[in-house]
Structures are given as structure tokens and as C-alpha cells.
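lol ok so funny story. i was supposed to be doing the assay writeup but got distracted and ended up predicting the structure for this chain instead. priorities right. anyway since i did it might as well share w the group, maybe its usefull for someone
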Amino acid sequence: MDRDLLYQMLDIESPSDFQYFENLSDLLECDEHIEYDDLYFIFKDVNKENLSQLVHDYFEELSDFIPGDAAELFVLLEKIKLSLMGMLKSADEENVIATFTEEINRFRIWYSTDSSVICTSLDGNGEEDVPLRDALALSRLEGLDGDKYSYDFSKCLDYSLDEYIMSFGDIISAAE
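and the output, tada:
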């Protein structure tokens, strides 16, 4: 996907327009290839504090749709959220934005295409192997009187996460 198509998909005209929850969700839920340089071009110029809030809000919304028996997935997504937000706290350094861009893109690919969740219909309609994005969408639909499923998240829990240091104050600020 070239930069113009990316901007069109994100409904922005320039990186400074990347400031809404929908911009981040459209980006993270896209399963098309996006060039690193195009993502970096957006993230280097976007307001880092606002981006940190968008990351926080996006992951908070995701957590609302994680089934109650998937504590390991909840913890994993919480660690990913804190890691991404921690990078943005140090975003004045150019190499940190480069690392953030790599990590958000790696998460996006894993979340929308590479992860594997077995969703078994409780109505006896079989099972599907879908990415985490789609499994959480099914979980959302359950709340709207959709079909009921059991979820096996075990295959998607192997997401490797680099450790980024956040100060205790930063963790408290992120939680508030």
C-alpha cells in the first residue's frame, strides 16, 4: 500500500491529522502490507502524548471484549499496551520512534493476520481458526445476541515482547 492509499484508508491528509481513535483502530485492524517508512513518517510527526492516549484507549477497549477465562491474554495485551506507551514517553529520541514504529507494526501484523484463535461455536456449527482481531470481534458480537463461542487463545500467547523500562510514576500516570 502506498502512502496515498494509507492516508486515504486512515482518513487523514497529513500525519498531524492522525489524532483520533478511529485512525489507530483502522491502522491496527488493517491486514494489508504497510511500508515501515510510511508508518514512521506518520509517527515521527504525530503528537506523542495524544498517540499514547490513543494506544491506551484502544487497548482498554480490546480488554472489554476478552472473555473472562482468558486472563493470560488480558495480561499479554496489558504488557503490550504498557510497552508501547512506555516507548512514547521517551519519544523525543529518534531511535525510540523507530522502535515504536517497528513494534506497533509487528503488533498490527500479529493481531490482524498472524495470530491464531480457535473459535468453537457452542451451537454446534463447527470451529474456525481466526486472527485475534476477528476472535475479539466475535466476542463483541456475542454481547449483541450473536452466536456464542468458546475461545482457545493458546496459540496466540507466544507473542514475544521486548522489555521497556517505565518509571513507577509513568505507570501511575498511564493508569490514571
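The chain has a mean pLDDT of 89. The first strand starts at residue 117 and ends at 121.
back to the writeup now i swear
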